Amino acid sequence: ARNVELDDLSDRLDSPNPESIGNSFGRESRIAQALLQGRMKFPAGKAKRIVLFTDGRETAGDTAEAIGILRNEGVDILISDLQSVTHPEVSVVSLKPNTTFAYFGEKVRLAVKLSSNRDTEAKLRVYCRGVLEQEAPLILKADQVNDAIIDVVMSTPGSTIWTAEIAADQDHFPLNNQASTTIDVKGRAKVLILHRKPRLMRLLARALDKQGMEVNVRGLRGLPETLEGILQFDAIILADIPATAMSTRQLLDLKSYVSDFGGGLVMLGSENSFGLGGYYQTPVEEVLPIVSRYEKEKERPSLAMVLVIDKSGSMDGLPIALARQAAKASAELLSPQDRVAIIAFDGQPYVICEMMSASEINLICEAIDRISAGGGTNMYPAMQQGMDILLGSHSRIKHMIVLGDGQSMPGAFLELAGEMAESNITVSTVALGGGADRELMSEIARIGQGRYYETMDPTTVPRIFTKETMEASRSAIREEPFLPIKVGEDDTIADIDFDGIPLLLGYVMTRAKPTARMQLVTESGDPLLASGRYGLGKTVAFTSDASDRWASQWIQWQGFGRFWAQILRSCLRKADCQGVNVKRQIYPDHISFTLTSRNDAGAPALYEDWRALVIDENGARKTEKLNQVGLAMHRINVRRPKSGRFTLRLTEAQTGKIKVLHHHEDYPGEYRLGNQSDASLTELPRLGEGPADAQLSPIPAFTPLQNHLLLAAMVCLIGSILLRRI
Q: Which domains does the chain carry?
């Protein structure tokens, strides 16, 4: 508490001294604390009244609770409203980046909120580590929040402090003219590009390298086998890699990489992408912003397809269940004008589903569910019956897919394949497991002018079937020159000049998910560039490619490197996922940091010993130990410094895990323009004219008996003396 002469009080209230800004008297308005301390000054047995001179802006404390306590103790409260800042005043309300983690060379958007109590012209300056980066003139409107957007490029690695400063010709308090934020800038982003022919990605890799990215181009089997290996990269591009080249574990790891660890995943168009690559109904398609299934155009050629599936005893269990799943997925990918028939075989063929329109998907799936394993293996009669069905179809494209997992009884397979080829019927084969006759199946596909697949893993069969179905339909790819059309505004392709953009020569037709954000479309309205968030990460789909097949003119385009760099930077992994999360809560006298830690398996990390190092803006260091407050949960309370800024480094003693936090309180809340008065104060009666104790209700006062008793004692003493004398 501080005693202030009454004659001086009026001057202080009417004209605050700017020199008092830095001391405790001028930084805050702790109204609740002042009320509670004031009640302790009242003598007992007196009427109690507090007259509160304030602008009503509490900066730390619960005013309503303090008023309730005083009322319960019989304290009368009057309020005299003080006018807030009357001098010309501008302030920075807040500075917020669109991300607190960026890569070297990435563009970050800073959102600045400003306020003024007068219409005025001002200049907004943005500094990085004290160096002026940008300056922009502004016109501020009075008594409202003014928004400004500044885009800055991260050109300095490490933890960078960005400061926004407002400058006006007339401004009373300079303390509230700045606000700061910290952005952690990582070095070169690591990008993995996967392509069947890595040499076709050299130009893209070279362009990204010039944009400050570290690029690793790999071939068909280049995706790391473990999630740990995948997490070495900040973004992954699937340029021309089919789903059949990955295990189920790798597909699930890619999904986890995006959703759980915030990784960026980009898929480019090719004959091995989206549905054509067998990604239909896979974990990768789940995270992408588009779906592989689409409505085939009516003018596209119709397809008649026969699925010949081995149902012998060796297929019992998981193989036959996945074969049923594969057949259903293939039927779902077909358009209504396509037709499909299904034949299962063991020692003899069984027509599970006659040739019918793919629009009857429910009947087809019911028929597929009736397939069960058992019996021997005789593939030739089933293929012969499938050919007869296709010969009776009037569709322009006729195709057969044969799945077998063992040695078949003898038959004229190669002659039959040649006969089908002469009748414009193509045959693709899938050899499942080590017991399959791979040489025979390969020869059938070669003579039948189809494709041959072999796999030891039955879980890949659905992906093979969907890929083969899309290949056979020949309708997922549109190869014709077109100009990309920009739709809406998006940071992903901001500042890219699309006026002189060259033609693309083809793309894969897909459909956008309802949650996708479309940036570019084709001239027919199909998705070209779409993005979406999934869990912690972001995925991007570009349905054309980045090689000389469809993008030969784009490769020569001056904006080619910048275009791809911006797309990748929009989805790069933004943080090292160490399983450590810290939440902060600000109190009047301290900031509480609560840390939770998890191990690599996602379970609570037990028996950890966390230490904290607090460094203020002057470099003063203080080491403290975090207190465990729950399962894998630790907490530390840091006293709020007067400067409002400090760095907190949290270190685990055993594993060496480190978490660094930067805390900024730009200026005291006392100097924030536009703060609303505390609602609890508006209900208090106002101080009127006259003395401060006017209309103060008296309270009953008790007269002390001490004097009366002393007088009585004196009378009794004198009386007793007189009685003895007389």
A: 6-84 (no CATH), 90-187 (2.60.40.10), 189-293+478-569 (3.40.50.880), 303-475 (3.40.50.410), 580-664 (2.60.40.10)
